[in-house]
Fold these 2 entries.
Entry 1:
Amino acid sequence: MEPRLALDILIVTGPLGAGKTTAVNRLLKAEVAAGRRVAVLINEFGAVSVDGALVDAERPELAGVENLVNGCACCSLRDDVVATLKAWCDQPQGVGPDRVVLETTGLADPTDLLDLELEPELVGRLRLAGLLTVLSCLAPVDHLQTKPLLHRQAALASLIHLSKADLDPSAAVAWESELRTAFKQIPLIATRHGEAPAGSPDPWLGDLRPLPEGWAPSGDTSFAAARSFHLDWDHPVDPAALEALLLAPPEQGELLRAKGVCAFAGWAPRNDGSDRWAFQLADGRLEISPLPLRADGTAPACVAVVIGTGLDGGEWKQALRELERPPEGARRKVSLKPR
């Protein structure tokens, strides 16, 4: 049996809703097209992996898909990251993956992932190929200075993708100016629909510089302050009511992110046989995209995930439940606000 080559790993980071999963899907598609075996490790904030369902539906040919939820890959779930990577490294050449994409939660400081190569179980078996940071040009440009975590995610990058440049070219120009001033040494690419232009730098050939002396995890409180709520839907939901709920300012707290999978009342299944749709709320925009059936012909479960600070979980779950439009004769579950 030929010796196992070192496993290349690419870390993809960036704020909530920046477009990381879209970028990851593009990366995975390119790896599969090139004939390489690639796996993905997805870390999501909360108890349910929506991004994992999106990747699994889009890329059923992957060498592996693992989801880490209810914690941060950089700290509380680090042992799980190491265990998963070790298991993939233990697989024989040609069976296990050649490359791994690790997508962090948007609330994570990736500093503590840059030394994965030094883990005793991974020494000589893992190569950190790069750190791709995805930033959305639809976010206020002053976030580079007012959001310390975003600034650190950018500062650690070997390559920055400025996403959604097609949606607001003028905002993309403003972000490019700020980023090139702050990080002259980091390559910067404006992407459209998650895709970089031909001839762009290869994320897998990243120039990772040593951390500055004294650099340590930020201790940012974003992760501790945020809360995630999810609700499993049993029936199709009203599309107009979903849009109204998610785009209206919450009565209390701040809505950081919302995403999920649903069927829409009154919408017939598409030609591919699926009636599932993925929805994503980020930067004040609600995006809806078709979600195909899994490779085995089954449909992903319908679920909504809401992430924010200071939100009333009971109120949100009740509001999400009220979006359902049960077929005639069916009953909707009653969502009780916790005492």
Entry 2:
Amino acid sequence: MSGGIAYVFDPDDVFGAKLNREMVQLQELDDDDRRFLLHTLRDHHRYTGSPVALRIVDDWSDQWQSFKRVMPTDYARVLSVMAAAEAAGLDEEATLAKVMEASRG
């Protein structure tokens, strides 16, 4: 994984044992993640008729806890730098410089 966020449905809680923790972090969902996933699953069911998506949506209050967010470490670092740059009021060029500096480690 080189960028972006993956969401994994892991009801048996076994996925984490298979991760390269040097490259990715396994994270709990926040409110935004839960809203995004519920909306995405509803759309998936509407477009495909997936019985799995329907089962998860119908029991969302329990099922959302089986999802994990997989975040690449480098991507998390870039997002953090971008948030800090925005909070500091940096312009696009200064923000890009900060991102490039962070990407070099």
